[in-house]
Amino acid sequence: MERGTRIRVKFVKRGELKYISHLDLLRTMERAVRRSGLPIAYTEGFHPHAKIQFASALPVGVESTGELMDIELKEEFSASEVVQRLKEQLPKALAPHEGAVVPEGEGKLTSLVQGAGYLVRVEPVADLAGRVEAWLGKDTVLWPRQRKGKVRHLDLRKATTKLAACGTDQLELFLSFSPEATNVRPQEVILSLELEPLFVVRTAIFGEGVLLAPLKKGKN
Amino acid sequence: MLDKKQWDAILARVEKPARYIGGEWNQPPKEGKLAVCLAFPDVYEVGMSHLGLKILYHVLTQKENVVVERAFCPWIDMEEEMKKAKIPLLSVESHRPLSEFQIVGFTLQYELSYTNVLQMLALGEIPLYSAERTEKHPLVIAGGPCAFNPEPLAPFLDAVVLGEGEEVMGEIVDCYESWQNKGASRDNLLRSLAEIPGVYVPSLYKVSYNTDGTIRAVEPEEGVPGTVTKRLVDLAGAPYPENWLVPYTEIVHDRVMLEIMRGCTRGCRFCQAGTIYRPLREKSQKEIMALADKLLKNTGYDELSLTSLSSSDYSRIAELLAALVDKYGEMGVSVSLPSLRTDKFAIELAQTIEKVRKTGLTFAPEAGSQRLRDVINKGVTEEDLISTAQAAFSTGWRRIKLYFMIGLPTETDDDVLAIAQLAKKVLAVGRECAGKGKGGIQVSVSVSSFVPKPHTPFQWEAQDTMEELARKQELLKGALAGTRAINLAWHQPEGSLLEAVLSRGDRRLAEVIMYAWQAGCHFDSWQEQFSFDSWQKAFRKAGLDPAFYANRKRSKEEILPWDHLHSGVNKSFLWRERQRAYSGQRTEDCRLGCTGCGVCPGLGVSNSFAQE
Ligand code: SF4
Q1: Which of B262, B271, B278 to mutate to test the pocket of ligand 1 (most atoms within 8 A of CB)?
Q2: Is the pTM of this model over 0.90?
Q3: CA of residue B269 to ligand 1 center, whole Å
Q4: Does domain B360-451+462-504 bear CATH number 3.20.20.80?
């Protein structure tokens, strides 16, 4: 193969588009790249797929100010041109706003990602800080998750690397993506606090290696 | 005004919220005073897959002064949420209540969606009966294949469009605008609409009945045309969406659908589409290539389907496929044909487009025996099918799907058993071609129950009773029992019965539809939602017998509920075809010579074939 480029793009997911699933997002991005005319690379085989990789699936219903995806192109391109061309093909609610060329040899995006940060708004509670403290004091917080008729218990406490109350109606939450804690949803942590999540936004994705500013070398 | 916070909370709770958010790529900017809502009486994924809706949406977008939006039937969970929150049915684009549109146009694609029309009107807070609507309410119109007998929905619809909507839709909008400017009465609007060719206003016709329940007369009011003839467009250069909406969530046909021709010349006697879309009109290859280019560029789709009633009949299909594969294959675009005819040529075509990925192939012999295939005028012989299967299996395909119907006119048990025999022969051919140690040959047999349709040579026929259909299904199951490589799928006879009732029904059925809907029936085409029991109660309550509509043979003299609605094909031709069916005589494809259906001389058109 001739020299290609891998471009890491940071984009938002806002408004009602928080309701499209990860698979929907994948399709949408692939189509946007195709419309942009960028020479995207495909996987080999019977069902060729565009080489687009996302950092991590965003739960349905959660907005984001900074999702990450890697796009592999067959030719060399500057990150700014890729961002610009994608912007023209995407609704504002999915607009890309930063990009960087991924250095050769860097691993897959999914393997670099270690966790994510969320901001959550809830109905005001007088002693939000106290409730958070009590929650953090527990060793485990098991949460049942139904899937195909089977119930699995996730340890929410273990997946949570930071939980802090801001005032009476906001929470800052960091979740780790370690294998044992896969896919804990921010809403589940909020529900386990006996709170109703009114609005959830992912504000950061953390990881090792060259993720994008301000995530560079982010440690959680 | 919609309470955004409340709406958001609802979206967070429902299954598939992406059905309700709109904002799809290529959504046109909205401007204009006259708001038209294209309403599809099913869920978003189904309605968005309908080509007619896309075409009309495009046509109306082009029209000055008009804002066009869409509405679909909310799924049960959303319906409950909206009722609880007292939110009316909203359009997808601007979330505007249905009742705030000037025109609401329903697509009638299948009979089992009729209760959904009532459902959407009711959720949209629009009075259900045309007679109850005033100048303040939207004009409610409908079109689509079922519009060729809209009688069961007659009291609910203000006007019905017969045939192709590309031109007449604009005329309706113009008519509405000038009526609005005049500030005249609603009656005045309906009367003006009835003057537009192809527009049928049911309330301007009085239907009377004989004591045996058949129709005595259909009488138009003074000055209203006695028959309404369908509209047709010249397909060459006809408006076609180049910029269509790309949904976020997966829809049923999630690809570019490119219509390459309209109409079919084969004359299968059970097929309504074969009549109502006549004559055959092929687009030029040049136009198709140009459209393909724009559509793929504007949508970013990687799949292109060449749609029509029988795409492998397109005169230049081999050249067209080769050109498309040549141009777009490198870009990872796959091309598909929705239907293949049963011959070796079709396999060659399939090979052009499925060089690597050999999924299944589908063929429709429709009947098991040669005798019965002659009756229905399906020009496929057993040799055709066997040699086609041979060609397919020996070039690497592993799965073949066969479509059949049971309950066809003159059918005997031998004809039913012949389906099993044919399927077994196909399987045997597959195993032979695949050779030893290369198993995995699969034959799927899909059997539906024959539903006699208006405007076909079988419009006078009785449908088999449900018991008879069930017996024939058992017969077939027995004949295929133990053959694991053949899997059999069939439809529930209850749904087919209801379809048969509604498709050839008269106005009195409106009451049944109303009762059924009131009893909670909607989404009848979704098996898990279908309640035959409720429908039976509705028939009893209205004092009507479904068997009168479904299982009764009509005489030649009987006035049929749709006799005043003209598809261009003469009733005398349909009767002649019926007689030929009974004597087992085939009628040739009218590409090879006119067979006298009446469309071409009657409407001043002709079959037209593709240029380069
Ligand atoms: S008039 Fe003749 S050529 Fe035209 S559609 Fe009918 S049968 Fe075919």
Answers
A1: B278
A2: yes
A3: 14
A4: no
